[in-house]
Design a protein that fits this description.
The complex is a heterodimer of chains A (315) and B (343). Chain A is built from 12 helices and no strands. Chain A starts with a helix and ends in a 5-residue tail after the last helix. The N terminus of chain A is likely disordered. With 315 residues, chain A is mainly α. Chain A has a single domain, classed as Orthogonal Bundle (MetI-like fold), CATH 1.10.3720. Chain B has a domain of 76 residues. In chain B, a hairpin with a 2-residue loop joins β4 and β5. The N terminus of chain B is likely disordered. The chains are: A mainly alpha (315), B alpha/beta (343).
């Protein structure tokens, strides 16, 4: 987040072989090295890590998992149950449920990651500015954040989505996803703003920030070299967990018929389409729902593991 | 200091000392009221000179230093009067970006607790190198080499191996050396050391003081040594300014002050140093508490604790009486204090 090369230095310094006698005695430990040492001993981290790799592969190369076309529909096979030919069966339109579940990963992860990225940028930037400059900037940012937080999530989403991409419009795949991403970030940034703000306020009163000022550091250097690197931990933890919750939120909005919609392929849409077939064709509902739950679980577990490793108070 | 800036600041062409603090007033505006932390402090330091600023917590010595550096938190702090002249130019009137150039290059500072004054997430060598990269635009590799040289100069053993270590891997004394290395990296003309040895144990204190004195001799810096420990300053300082309640109550060449203090407070401080020849006797302590900055005593701020108090001490604020060319005391009865000698 600060200077990529600086982080590289950090990692390099941490990873160097401990050849010299001094290094053996004082064994080079940075916060990140420490975090890694704790992470790699945690089972929950490895489980979620493997699951993450699987989902990322699925999102990047869906053809590795299925050679079927998720758009190919054979109405004759509508709601047919699982078989050797189609592992998860066919959905209402006679499309392969497994193929659609695999292709759905891409949408969900893109929406989750981009919405989180937008949240971190928006919330992080405003939080750092509010904390660093304080006074009226802080007051304005905090109050605006509270206004957004006061908005009920679903209600806010219904209003914005219903206005920007109403049901009868046909804006295209990218636009549908972009609007959902923006809505998620717009309604979620105040939480990250608060986290970043409090972390930076805490770091700001440390002696090393005063010392850096006394030795001639300007505002940008203070923010990027001293404040941000020292407030990264809580931001990172929240970020990891947020990806999971945004994927869930996207599905919720899709289920309500206001989030993603065809031609986009997503788990949320599949769940929405088959919600009323619970008793007659549960497979078309349960498999996408299982993919969704596992994916959310992956990010939440990863977030938990990262938090355990980064937050010394919980150790 | 960059060429442009030094020309602009008229190096050597002004009459006064290198750094002059002139009648400085600083207040803190808090909910409980206005705390007058610094009330008309005046002192000066020249190149190669060491000034010790002595006083207890809340006497305003650190606030004065922070004001010189320009790192006072405003608000709640507010500078209500006075000038700080560096090479004749009033720093308080300089725009922010010019002031920033002076920090580190012209005037630099060493903090009390080096562990918290070093950034925990970067290796120490990186932090020292950052000084060169920040002010001089030195390349990464060169800056690192210079950092190792500096670490050698402040006598960190095996500097080359330890350059990539993090602050928490060093002992207290070593950390303070690194802090000093950062502070002197750009050859500042004035170095302010704010209680540089308070967080260290006694043997290490002596080493750090020795190092500061040596560095000062080598580069002819002006050194402002802020401390509450009389024992620390005796060998190092040229002159002493004793602060109490945000004012300078006595200033004197160091030996004069030790021989015959001219203010009851300095005298009290000297008498409360434990001495071998008074073993077994009760240690003298100045009675009472330091003044509450929100409600300063009327007249002389020291009068509630002063053994020499007369009626006019309660009403009249004593000016800094001139005792000789280099000495001053803010006590109406300084003659009496000097004449009486030791109790």
């Amino acid at each position: 987040m600060s200077d990529p090369t600086a982080t590289q230095d950090l990692i390099k310094g941490a990873g160097e072989p401990t050849a010299s006698p001094v290094a053996v005695r004082g064994d080079r430990r940075s916060l990140w090295r420490d975090t890694w040492d704790i992470l790699k001993r945690r089972k929950i981290f490895w489980i979620s890590f493997v699951m993450l790799i699987v989902f990322l592969l699925m999102a990047a190369f869906p053809t590795l998992f299925t050679h079927k076309d998720p758009e190919y529909a054979t109405l004759a096979k509508s709601m047919e149950g699982p078989s050797a030919d189609a592992w998860f069966g066919y959905d209402l339109q006679g499309r392969d449920v497994f193929a659609r579940s695999v292709y759905g990963a891409r949408t969900s992860i893109i929406v989750g990651v981009l919405a989180t990225l937008a949240t971190v940028l928006l919330g992080g930037l405003t939080g750092v500015l509010a904390a660093y400059f304080g006074r009226w900037i802080d007051a304005v940012v905090s109050r605006v954040g509270e206004m957004f937080l006061g908005l009920p999530y679903v209600l806010g989403a219904i209003i914005i989505l219903g206005t920007v991409t109403p049901a009868q419009s046909n804006p295209g795949k990218a636009m549908i996803m972009a609007v959902v991403i923006i809505v998620l970030a717009l309604l979620g940034w105040p939480i990250l703003m608060r986290i970043a703000r409090s972390a930076v306020i805490q770091a700001k009163h440390q002696d090393y920030v005063q010392a850096a000022r006394a030795l001639g550091a300007g505002p940008l250097r203070l923010i990027f070299r001293h404040l941000l690197p020292n407030s990264l931990a809580p931001i990172l933890v929240y970020t990891t967990i947020t990806i999971g919750s945004y994927i869930g939120a996207e599905a919720t909005l899709s289920l309500l018929g206001i989030g993603l919609r065809p031609p986009v392929i997503s788990w949320g849409i599949a769940i929405a389409d088959h919600a009323s077939y619970m008793r007659t064709g549960a497979h078309a509902l349960l498999f996408p729902a299982a993919f969704l739950s596992l994916c959310v679980l992956t990010f939440v577990m990863l977030g938990e593991a990262v938090r355990d490793a980064l937050d010394p108070k919980l150790r | 200091m960059t060429e442009v800036l030094s020309e602009q600041m008229g190096r050597g062409s002004h009459g006064g000392a290198l750094l002059e603090v002139d009648n400085l007033h600083v207040e803190f505006r808090t909910r409980a009221g206005v705390a007058k932390a610094v009330n008309g402090v005046t002192y000066s330091v020249d190149a190669g000179e060491t000034l010790a600023v002595l006083g207890e917590s809340g006497s305003g010595k650190s606030v004065t230093a922070q004001t010189i550096m320009g790192i006072l938190d405003m608000p709640p702090g507010k500078i209500t009067g006075g000038e700080i002249r560096f090479r004749g130019v009033d720093l308080l009137k300089l725009p922010d970006d010019q002031r920033r150039k002076i920090r580190g290059e012209g005037i630099s500072m060493v903090f009390q607790d080096a562990l918290s004054a070093l950034n925990p997430v970067f290796p120490v060598g990186w932090q020292i190198a950052e000084m060169f990269r920040m002010h001089r635009g030195t390349s990464r590799a060169d800056a690192k080499k210079m950092a190792v040289e500096l670490m050698d100069r402040v006598r960190i053993p095996a500097a080359k191996e330890r350059v990539n270590d993090f602050p928490h891997q060093f002992s207290g004394g070593m950390r303070q050396r690194i802090m000093i290395a950062m502070a002197i990296a750009l050859d500042p003309e004035i170095l302010i050391a704010d209680e540089p040895t308070t967080a260290l144990d006694v043997t290490v204190q002596a080493q750090i003081m020795g190092l500061l004195a040596e560095l000062q001799r080598d580069s002819n810096m002006g050194l402002i040594l802020i401390t509450h420990d009389l024992g620390v300053v005796a060998d190092v300082a040229d002159k002493i300014a004793v602060m109490y309640g945000g004012r300078i109550v006595e200033n004197a060449p160091v030996h004069d002050l030790y021989r015959d203090p001219a203010h009851p407070y300095s005298k009290g401080l000297l008498e409360s140093i434990p001495r071998v020849d008074q073993k077994g006797q009760e240690l003298y302590a100045i009675k009472g508490l330091p003044p509450n900055l929100l409600e300063m005593p009327t007249g002389c701020a020291f009068h509630p604790r002063c053994p020499y108090r007369r009626d006019n001490c309660v009403t009249d604020v004593p000016p800094l009486y001139t005792i000789s060319g280099t000495r001053g005391s803010a006590c109406h009865y300084w003659r009496e204090v000097i004449d009486e000698g030791e109790r």
